[in-house]
Amino acid sequence: MSHEILIVTESELKRTLKLGRSVNDLVEKAFAALATGEVIMPPILSMDLPMVNAEVDVKTAYIPDFEHFAIKVSPGFFDNPKLGLPSLNGLMMLLSAQTGLASAVFLDNGYLTDLRTAAAGGVAARHLAPQKVETAGVFGTGVQARLQIIAAHIERPFKKVLVWGRNRDHAEACAQDIAAEIGVEATAVDSAERVVKESQLVVTTTPSREPLIDADWMHPDLHITAMGSDQEGKNELDPEIAAQADLYVCDRVSQCELLGELRTAKQTGNWPSDQTPPELGQIITGGAAGRTSDATITICDLTGTGAQDTAIGNHALELAYSLNFGTKIKTD
Amino acid sequence: MSHEILIVTESELKRTLKLGRSVNDLVEKAFAALATGEVIMPPILSMDLPMVNAEVDVKTAYIPDFEHFAIKVSPGFFDNPKLGLPSLNGLMMLLSAQTGLASAVFLDNGYLTDLRTAAAGGVAARHLAPQKVETAGVFGTGVQARLQIIAAHIERPFKKVLVWGRNRDHAEACAQDIAAEIGVEATAVDSAERVVKESQLVVTTTPSREPLIDADWMHPDLHITAMGSDQEGKNELDPEIAAQADLYVCDRVSQCELLGELRTAKQTGNWPSDQTPPELGQIITGGAAGRTSDATITICDLTGTGAQDTAIGNHALELAYSLNFGTKIKTD
Question: Pfam families from the entry (chains A, B) (predicted)?
Answer without folding.
Answer: OCD_Mu_crystall
